[in-house]
Amino acid sequence: MPPEADAASLAAAVLAATTPKAAAAAVSSVADFLRRHAGDRPRAFFADALPPLLFRLFVASPSSPSFIDLAAGDAALAGDLASLLCPSGPLLAAAFDADRCALLRFAFPPERLPGWLRLALTSAESDVVISPLLAGRIGSELHLSVFEYYLFWFAYYPISTAAATTTNTARAGTPKASPSTSRPLVKSRSRLESWVSTLASTAGRGAKQKAERPLYLKLLYAYLKEFVPGACVPSRGGCGTLLRRTFSEVADAAESFRRAEFFVHTLVQFWLVGDDFSPLPVHTRRECGLPLQSLKSRAHAAVTERSPSPGLGNAVKLFVMYLNKSCGTIVDASNVFEGMPVWKKSSDIPVGYWNQFIQRPMYRFLLRTFLFCPMGADMEHAAQVFSAWMVYMEPWKVQQEDFDEYDLPPPGARNVNRVDEGKRQLCEASYTPAWQGYVLSNYLFYSSLVVHFLGFAHKFIHSDVALVLQMVSKVLQVLCSSNELLELIYNVDAAYHSREFASKSYSLDHMLKYVPSIREQLQDWEDGLSESDADGSFLHERRNSDLRLFSVDEEGAYNLLQLLLLRAESEIQRFRGDAMQTVQTLDSIKSQMKNVFSKHVGTFHLKSLPGRENIQGHVHTGVFAPKHPSLRKSPLIDVKNKGDWMTRPISDTEVGWLVVMLIRFSAWLNETLRLDGVGADATHTGLRYVKFDSNELSRVGGPKDAARMVLVGAWTLLVLMGQTILHFMRTRGIKINLRFLASKKVLAAAMLYVVFSVARNVLS
């Protein structure tokens, strides 16, 4: 049978496979075909069979899971896929062979590209190289080699669920051939259109699939080891060792770095940048002239409703773990790779070469997750993203043993040796001054992002109080894990705000020289990202234009933590079941707060930490005050309505802007009527009796005077009734809450009543 017929039958078998057994048979057929034609470079396979194979490998529908998803419950299929897709497997070997002779090129589906890459392809070409991914741009299309085409589909897998919600039309991409071989292009297009049409409306994985993809993470780690080795950095001319290399060695090193750079940038753009409306640094965006304002306006509405993709956090965690391990190798051992210098971001901040590429995308990825994760989102997915942040903050703890579980088993083997957990904890490393450059270069991860995360914690404390408290405890644990680390973070903050240092181990001049770069990072990394009262938290209403980790105002981390503890206490009191573990976590947070803030914030009159014995339901003593000017004078957060705060997150059953207006009006009424507990008279004075003189009554001179006296009496009675009601409300802590009027059901009933009344009057 000719290769063309074999390729067509392979494509049909791949598309028809919907069960683990059928998928394993299709994968085995593909592997056998590639081994039989190892030296033939079968163009028909790449033109006709590769696109549907990659589509079925990495994209699924509710009725037909992807092969990677099917492998989660079938060990035989997982083994076959690992053999086919591993770096030394037949598929990538054939791809490299085809790329060496430039057999053909592919165009990745533009609707599956990150938003800003789609915009870049529709814009005029710029002389500034803004991304290695655009090196193959020809007009408005992005032409990729076979290997690059495979990497794009591989990177697309973790985000396919989120992308499916915004992509209504899915197609697997069209292979581009040279003019001399354009005839097979027509045949391949007709075949692709036939199978793409059946899957166009069902792209994406089902919501009930498991978040973790063990096989996918193992493949990711195998590719990182193969294509991004620890010492893979660009060579610099003038190094003596490099001059003694042969031309072939230099060419191989350059090709190896180009491949590593393309792989890293692909993962960064698909996973971290995605549809970010500010994907490039401000100065780069100005140089290239991309019209990103239109992208920003389109993305603002969508980004607020996007949940973290299932499994994406785990993939990002492994990605940053590996790059941080490489970073540590380069920083701590300058002689690991002869001839490769220690790369520095500034004159004396040594960082890993790849870290400078992922800093801004990683920060904005985390910040978008914390700011725009919608209510009702799966907290497990958010926790995965959070774990990636924790790994990024502690690169010194990453060890080779952490990657043992990600190793692909050798052929015929099933188990991988793992380090015992007890031994693993004993060999954990801690922060040392050697990592000072890394912390300073990534300072916002340890400062500004912590405050943003506390806003996220306030937003979701009602959703899962135990998980949120565990996350908060982990953040504080990182900050207080080392006195040297905490001292460094505070001294930079003190230099930023021109405060007195807590320690004399750092000079003022030494810290001040980092302030301009940190201020520039703060403005650039948070470009366009802001918080508003649309999320119902009332914690922030403008972008984080300052460092507030050690601030003592209402937006400082300490006050936000105090308020969070109060809210957590009330949630725990309503908790059904065993809450002992959650209470222990709460106590641990209080202890960690003392370690983090007692020394540094104590200079600024640190308030005492709240204890459970002082908590009564939701009522507290005004530790936190809302930021809005119209609410600062009224203790809005003390307002309660049947046990719930008026400042609880706005739900889908309410009109957001009307909720804000009614809360402010209710707070004003409570303050005016002295129902807020401030200056309220709790002593009942009783009714006052007024004695009337009979001579005065005899002087009433007619009906007018009698009517006036009746009106005065009625008004006096109403005032007395009002005072009695107010006294009753003050003594029992009852307050006015008009928020229920913002309910969509109430508004709908009111509108129906108005329409009915108008219609009745018109008809009558």
UniProtKB/TrEMBL annotation:
Alphabetic keyword roster: Membrane, Transmembrane, Transmembrane helix
Organism: Eragrostis curvula (weeping love grass)
Protein name: Sphingomyelin phosphodiesterase 4
Membrane-spanning intervals of the chain: 706-726, 746-763
Source species, domain of life: Eukaryota
